[in-house]
Design a protein that fits this description.
This protein is an alpha/beta fold. It contains seven helices and six strands; from the N terminus they run E-H-E-H-H-E-H-E-H-H-H-E-E. The termini are close together.
Length: 181
């Protein structure tokens, strides 16, 4: 991916989108220390990143690390689906508490593309989960209304696979980021 996203130091960046949309690949552009991932914490707790029984433990670890980073004004990227409103509300509450800007990167990747990408993954997500997630993807307007100061979009455009656009996590109009996923 060649898209550019330059966050304001100390920002919370929440990746929002269904499984197989390219969120973890996108997150890989930033230093490992910036990235918080429930999959990683489930893996540490159970030796299986897909073990949903460890999600509560993983959420506690993520919140602890999120607070540790935001309290130090360190940019933090949350790599999860973030499809449920209460999950996003909790993340926004932490950013407000620490008086940090919260930005969302919304992955608008068609279900068929996600299915194709999912089929090539080591850990394949069941198709019914992908379909359910498709119904949960919020709109850019919803995310702005929830309190994100900026919402950038990662889309798949077959005509233009990659574009490079500068972006900062500041309150202003959002832009589309086309990305190869």
């Amino acid at each position: 991916m060649n898209t550019t996203f330059v966050p304001v130091p100390g920002s919370l960046i929440v990746l929002v989108g269904g499984s197989g949309a390219g969120k973890t690949t996108f997150a890989g552009r930033w230093p490992t220390t910036w990235r918080l991932s429930l999959d990683d914490y489930r893996q540490v707790a159970t030796d299986d990143e897909a073990d949903q029984s460890a999600t509560t433990v993983a959420e506690h670890v993520q919140t602890l690390l999120l607070d540790a980073r935001l309290s130090r004004n360190l940019t933090t990227v949350v790599d999860s689906t973030a499809l449920l409103p209460h999950v996003r509300a909790s993340l926004l509450a932490r950013a407000r508490y620490w008086q940090r800007p919260a930005c969302a990167v919304l992955f608008e990747v068609p279900l068929e593309t996600r299915r194709e990408l999912n089929a090539g993954r080591e850990r394949v997500v069941p198709d019914h989960v992908l379909v359910d997630q498709e119904q949960q993807v919020p709109t850019q307007a919803q995310l702005l209304a929830e309190g994100f100061v900026r919402v950038d979009r990662v889309t798949v455009d077959p005509a233009v696979r990659v574009t490079d656009s500068g972006s900062t996590c500041e309150p202003r109009d959002s832009l589309d980021l086309a990305a190869r996923v």
